[in-house]
Amino acid sequence: MATEDEQRAGAEARADGERLEVDQAPSGDAVGAADDGPISLDPLDEIPDGQLPLEELVPERPVEAMAPMRRPAALVGTLVTGGVMGAAEVVPGFSGGTVALVAGIYERLVANVRQGARTLSLLVRARPRDAWRALLTIDWLFVAVLGVGMLTVLFSVVGPLSALLEDRPVEMSAVFLGLVLGAAVVASRRLRTPSPRHLGVALLAAGVTFVALGFTPGTIDQPNLLFLMLGGAVAVTAWILPGVSGSFLLLLMGLYPAVVAAAADRDLGILALFAIGCVLGLAAFSTALNWLLARAHDLVLAALIGLMVGSVRVLWPWPSEAGVGGSAELGAPVGTEVFLAAALALTAFALVYMGGLSATAVQRRMERLRQRRAARKAGGTPA
């Protein structure tokens, strides 16, 4: 027979076991929660629409894109930059992104495009209030002024510039060759802390671009619809990628004739698929580029400079039968054309270089003025 102590110990053990079973048993609330449905994979579902924190609405940006442009001088400069970007988009082998980089608005342009992609993302996720808040954080004054400049010049110079590109291919190639090389030198001055590593990255990117542009593209007469969307996604990156031409990217993919024919025939189905690819590509690429610029500004800038230098392969003036940017074949200079082409290239290089120095000097002066005003306000002295 068990002793009294053993009986007491057994009773306590049974009581502890019963308490443990009660604690481990699922409560009514837990059972109800388990029956509510599948767990959401979107972390934003737990936050009501319209209450998303600001850091979720506006992703991290590079420091160059932080302060909005409001001063008249900055807005006039943005308008002129937009005009030059519009002219650049007419030229195969040249890029509006190159102009933005030289003018010092590249990071701001990428950040605002990225914010537009963020707005679309919130709309797709059925968060209209947060999408509206994200839309309001775009620097619309900057975007509008830049767009007006681009569209005005694009539609006013496309005719004369296209005629020059066709009638004077050697001279125009030489001009754009000097412009791109000058832009690369000016862009190198925007590195925050230059180092040999950045030079290595630029040389590697230049070499890869130079070799890649040498491949002879084939032609796809009836492209797959998904491949057509992919072509739009790839080609649109040239709008914000310095040194790369969207038309030449389409040539490399073999899609250029199909897209041009669709535009000429008003084939809305093909154009709509191409446009969808452009929107998706711009959203994805601007997101990645903004993230990289915010975290590795100098390395990304060095790679972009390399792209610009390598892209001069399609701007080499000889042979010139295919026109500016129409051929990546390299030939020897031709007789009396050498001196005029060299003079034009050097003149264009000097203009870009001097313009870049002037723009940098103006930016530094404006920054010093802002710092002085901030110091006077901090000291209690009226500005």
Would you mind describing this structure in some detail?
With about 375 residues, the protein is an all-alpha fold. The relative contact order is 0.13. The chain has 16 helices and no strands. Helix 9 runs parallel beside helix 16 (about 335-380). The longest helix is centred in the C-terminal third of the chain and has 42 residues, at about 335-380. The chain has one domain (about 70-380).
Unreliable runs: 18-41
**Per the principal axes of the C-alpha atoms, what is the gross shape?**
globular
Taking the alpha carbons of the first and last residues, their distance comes to 98 Å
User: What count of structural domains?
Assistant: 1
Task: Provide key terms for this protein.
69% helix; 383 residues
Quick recap:
This protein is mainly α and 383 residues long. The protein is 69% helix and 0% strand.
